[in-house]
Amino acid sequence: MRVLCGTDVIELARMAEALERTPRLVDRIFDPRESEYAFTHANPTPHLAARFCAKEAVMKVLGKGIGSINFRDIVVVRVSLERPKIELTNTAAELAREVGLIDLDVSLSHSETIATAMAVGIIED
């Protein structure tokens, strides 16, 4: 077995500008569960940004970059007060099977200026 990790960070101002410039970006990048969760907060930008980072971090674990996996194929799922989990569908799920991914964990964080995420995957050789 091997352990692979991926990480990503984004400035909140950059995410806010992108969302303001292209409001439909929310629907193109985020699953409805992700956007619904983010919009329960007064400022949804840090929560959307952290989820964006999680998606990119998972892509890195899978050995792929932007454009090879649809962002909506990687979903950050929240169950009550439990830590977030990743749900893979479509192309992301197929790639996970191909690389032998047997477990995937994610951690999200944000401050007043940045959001970040780290994904750790266990790959069966």
In short:
The chain is α+β, with helices and mostly antiparallel strands.
| Beta-strand segment tally | 5
Residue runs with pLDDT of under 50 for 5 or more positions: none
Question: Which CATH architecture?
Answer: Alpha-Beta Complex
Helical/strand content category: alpha+beta
Distance between the termini: 5 Å
In percent, how much strand structure appears in the residues? 25-35%
Average pLDDT number: 94
Shape descriptor reads globular
Radius of gyration: 14 Å
At CATH level 3, the topology is Ribosomal Protein L22, Chain A
Elements, N to C (H/E): EHHHHEEHEE
Number of domains: 1
Helix content percent band: 25-40%
The CATH H-level superfamily is 4'-phosphopantetheinyl transferase domain
Looking at this protein, list some descriptive labels.
125 residues; alpha+beta; Ribosomal Protein L22, Chain A; 3-stranded antiparallel beta sheet; two-stranded antiparallel sheet; 5 strands; 39% helix; globular
Write the layout of secondary structure elements.
Blueprint lengths: L1 E10 H10 L3 H5 L2 H7 L6 H17 L12 E4 L7 E4 L1 H10 L1 E10 L3 E10 L2
Antiparallel strand pairs: 1-5, 2-3, 4-5
